[in-house]
Amino acid sequence: MQAIHTKLAPEAIGTYSQAIRCGQTVYLSGQIPLDPETMQLCSDDIKLQITQVLENLAAVCEAAGGSLANIVKLNVYLTDLSHFPLINDAMSRYFIAPYPARAAIGVSALPRGSKVEMDGVMVLSSSNS
């Protein structure tokens, strides 16, 4: 088991790692739209928050030796499920087919007042070792 860390994504705001690699599988902790430099929410705008979350996830994926293309399962947490079409739009820009399996979960609140959080599972190919 190996902890993954990068300064290009927000520091953990609790007792957890940004990601954990176990063999070729990487478990990505939830990312909220914090700016990695300031550790503050990037914006109150949901579109900008979604973009920041995906950029944060991408940074952790790269630190683990992969990319967003290696994500096989993505969980999306939204405080307002009416924003679901915006998730689909952003995913069409950040992912290519075959898209990861995904769940969208409505929640009453997220850390730091964010509107979106994403976590996932990434599988590295043998060429990513």
TrEMBL record:
Pfam family, one: Ribonuc_L-PSP
Enzyme Commission number(s) from the entry: 3.5.4.-
InterPro entries: RidA (IPR006056), RidA_CS (IPR019897), RutC-like_sf (IPR035959), YjgF/YER057c/UK114 (IPR006175)
Alphabetic keyword roster: Hydrolase
Enzyme class: hydrolase
SUPFAM superfamilies recorded: YjgF-like
A Gene Ontology molecular function term of the record: deaminase activity
GO CC list: cytosol
Family that this chain belongs to: Belongs to the RutC family.
Protein name: Endoribonuclease L-PSP
Organism annotation: Legionella moravica
